[in-house]
Design goal:
Layout (H helix, E strand, L loop, with lengths): L1 E5 L17 E5 L6 H16 L10 H10 L23 H16 L28 E2 L6 E2 H13 L10 H11 L8 H7 L26 H16 L7 H10 L9 H4 L14 H18 L4 H22 L7 H14 L4 H7 L6 E4 L2 E4 L2
Antiparallel strand pairs: 1-2, 3-4, 5-6
Helix pairs in contact: 4-5, 7-11, 7-12, 11-12, 12-13
């Protein structure tokens, strides 16, 4: 059974400036929990599954069950006096206020960790691990309509984790139909194209070499934009792709509307499904992308400009290592944390930096009755 661990950090290569106070992560313990406690967890999971389209948000029942066991003095539910505020003659006594406040304090005390903080789920934007919609797709947040981005990444992830293309009680097939009905994977937006290594517009690391005083320097972007663009530009310039396994070949057959070798990737670079398109590309932007793709990229791959690319990659990795070390490999958020980790692996699979990243993965994972999700 899963157990919530609080303010602990015994893993190798793990560093902290406050002795890990406030850290929360889940750890699987096959011997944890009595049979009746495991049955309680299973019941909560089944109830969430059966009602997931009506009640989409979990209530952290696994954490609450654990705290109720550990804090036996604290009642999870305490009866309180109910007041009808619509009645004009209601008299609120001091005792009623005291009872209400005591109940509230007692409840929140039962959910408080020993060192003072309140652990909990912070799911954030749910393209990280979103909820399944009735139409078979996944959206950007728990109430969001299905998008190509959420559906494509969730489908590919499930297949990589071992789900068969006809598995998931029909969920995989429904998701595949949703993707194909909306044009196929060539219509996934830019972040999806990056992860799938297909149809990217140029992500130039050379921009990090520009003088900072220029308004187009990436360092002037919003923090989440620049810290995600940073590792993406490294992976793009390295032209890094994983091995083409039988599963990868199968995914290409499953999710594109044309045979992979017949796809017009030049056209695919600017394709985006209407569900994901918040603002269409201006013509000037498309012209810029075309110039970078057809002129800039070929030139940067040849001497003497190839030296510029090497220098840019070195600078980008310096920024990545600085971010990693400065945050003890937690990073700004889950997106750039995972991307930075991949960059460290691409640079050197046996590097100390990559090994330090591994110890911090579980800091971002949260378990509740709705399953595992990634926190933001």
């Amino acid at each position: 059974m899963w157990k919530l661990k609080l303010s602990q950090g015994t893993e190798p290569r793990l560093k902290s400036v406050n002795n890990h106070i406030g850290r929360q992560y889940w750890e699987f313990d096959p011997n944890f929990g009595a049979p009746e406690e495991r049955a309680q967890v299973e019941k909560a999971r089944n109830e969430f599954t059966n009602n997931r389209f009506q009640m989409k948000q979990s209530t952290d029942l696994l954490m609450r069950f654990q705290f109720a066991r550990e804090n036996s003095w604290a009642e999870m539910k305490v009866p309180t006096a109910k007041i009808n505020v619509c009645e004009s003659q209601v008299t609120v006594s001091e005792e009623m206020v005291r009872s209400t406040l005591t109940t509230a304090l007692r409840f929140y005390s039962s959910l408080q960790a020993e060192d003072g903080f309140w652990p909990g789920d912070y799911g954030g934007p749910l393209f990280l691990l979103p909820g399944l919609n009735k139409d078979g797709g996944w959206g950007l947040h728990i109430e969001g309509e299905s998008t190509m981005f959420g559906t494509a990444l969730s489908y590919v992830t499930l297949r990589l984790l071992g789900e068969r293309k006809d598995g998931g009680n029909g969920a995989i097939e429904k998701a595949r139909k949703w993707i194909l009905d909306h044009g196929g994977l060539t219509f996934v937006p830019s972040w999806g194209k990056m992860w799938l290594s297909s149809g990217n517009n140029p992500l130039l690391p050379e921009l990090w070499l520009l003088p900072y005083l220029l308004p187009i320097h990436p360092g002037r972007m919003w923090c989440h934009s620049r810290m995600v663009y940073l590792p993406m530009s490294y992976l793009y310039a390295k032209k890094f792709v994983g091995p083409i396994t039988s599963l990868v070949s199968s995914l290409r057959r499953e999710l594109y509307t044309l045979p992979y070798h017949l796809i017009d990737w030049n056209q695919a670079r600017n394709q985006c499904s209407k569900e994901d398109l918040y603002y269409p590309h201006p013509m000037l932007q498309n012209i810029l992308w075309d110039c970078l793709q057809k002129v800039g990229e070929p030139a940067l791959g040849k001497r003497p400009f190839s030296k510029l690319r090497k220098r840019a990659l070195d600078v980008v990795m310096q920024h990545i290592h600085y971010e990693d070390e400065n945050t003890h490999y937690i990073c700004l958020g889950p997106v750039n944390k995972v991307l930075n980790m991949v960059c460290c692996w691409v640079e050197d699979p046996n590097s100390e930096a990559f090994k330090c990243h591994l110890s911090r993965i579980k800091d971002y994972l949260w378990i509740a009755e709705d399953g595992m999700k990634m926190q933001a």
